Each structure stands twice: as C-alpha cells, then as structure tokens.
Amino acid sequence: GVTGHLDATRLLRPLTLSRRTSVQSRAKLALAVVLADRCEYSEAHRLLQQAAQTAAAEGDRTCHCEAALRLLQVKLDSNGPNAASTVTSSLSRLVAETAAPHLFALMHVRLGGLEARRGLLDLAVRHLETAWRLLQDEPQLVVAGTLWLDRSAVELYLGHYEEALKAARRARATAESSGHLRHKLAALTNEAFLLQQLGRIGEAEEV
C-alpha cells in the first residue's frame, strides 16, 4: 500500500491510463487513497467510483470491495455520516463475495467510524471489537492500525483516557511494524495529547 511517499501521485497517474483495466482500477484506487489523505476529496471520490465500476466489470471482487470501503470513508470525511450512509447498504454483500476476513474487519472499522460520528459510541465499540476478532484469523497491519486509531478516538469521546492511551500506543506499535507513516504520526499526536490530559507532561514531551 501507499504509505505517504511524496512522489506517489506522479508514479500512479500514468498507470490510471493503462490499457489493462485491472491495472487501471488498482492504480485509481491507490491514487484515491493518496488524494484522500491530502483531503482532495472530490478527485478521490471520482477515482474511487471509476475504480469500483471497472473492477465490477472485470469481476475483480476484492478491488471493487476495497474501492467501496474507501468511498465510504471519503464520504464520511468530506460530507459527514448522512452522506456516508448512502453507500453502506451494499457493503455486506460486496465483502461477503470476497470471503476475505481482513475486508470484513475493515468494513467493521469503517462502520465503527460512521457510528462514532453519529454519536452512537457503544455501537462503534462493538464494530471495532468485531473487527479485532476478525483480524485474529487473518492479520493485516494497516487495517489494525486504522482500528486502533479509531478505538483511541472512541475511548476519548467516552472519557476513558487510559483506554484511549493504550489504543494510541497499540496504533503506534502497529504503524511501526507496517511502516505506515501517517498512522504513526496520528498515533504519536494522540498519545502526546492524552498524556497531557492525564497530567503526565514529562511523558508527553518525550513522545
């Protein structure tokens, strides 16, 4: 996966024009991830829709599912939970067709984020716990990193500062293993903030 390389867009854009539709859909998916990380949601949304359509036509269920899951996150980040809800109805079917445990886990992570934005924190926790159980069958570090970042945020909203700190530290450890720079930076930021909230200023300064 793309982990924050500055030249990623330059490398990926030519591949989005490939005559091989399988390469084209994967490149559009990867480019959309980079653009979404930069908050360029409009183009990311367009690329994800194209990637999903091409993958569906090619019978690439995994790419189709990954694009749909990413589209849910882009809609959530750009327009809020009401907009994101419009793409949830078909997700379970798409994920089931892949039979991939890590995609089931990612679906629950995304749905957990959606419920957290709605303020349904107990439901968000249940989704994240389901995702963690699924990852025991097929570990996937990037999905796990996303899970622990979201779990840290949810525990913070619930006022559980120690639990939020534990989750942030697990997110950092996972990011160090996966090499995912953005996850690591987010985890470090969360960890430092939570230590400050707990009055552990010396530890926060060392993060």
Compact overview of the structure:
With about 210 residues, the protein is mainly α. Helix content is about 80%, strand content about 0%.
Task: Give a written overview of the molecule.
This protein is mostly helical and 207 residues long. The protein is built from 12 helices and no strands. Helix 7 packs antiparallel against helix 8 and helix 9 runs antiparallel to helix 10. It is globular and about 55 Å long. The N terminus is likely disordered.
Features:
single chain; 207 residues; mainly alpha; 12 helices; disordered N terminus
Sequence stretches where pLDDT stays below 50 over 5 or more residues: 1-5
Number of strands: 0
Radius of gyration: 17 Å
Query: Helical stretch count?
Result: 12
Please state the overall shape, judged from the principal axes of the Cα atoms. Answer: globular
Task: Characterize the main sheet.
Answer: none
Q: Determine the structural class based on helices, strands and strand pairing.
A: mainly alpha
Beta-strand share of residues? under 5%
Mean pLDDT level: 91
- H/E series: HHHHHHHHHHHH
End-to-end separation: 26 Å
Helix content: over 70%
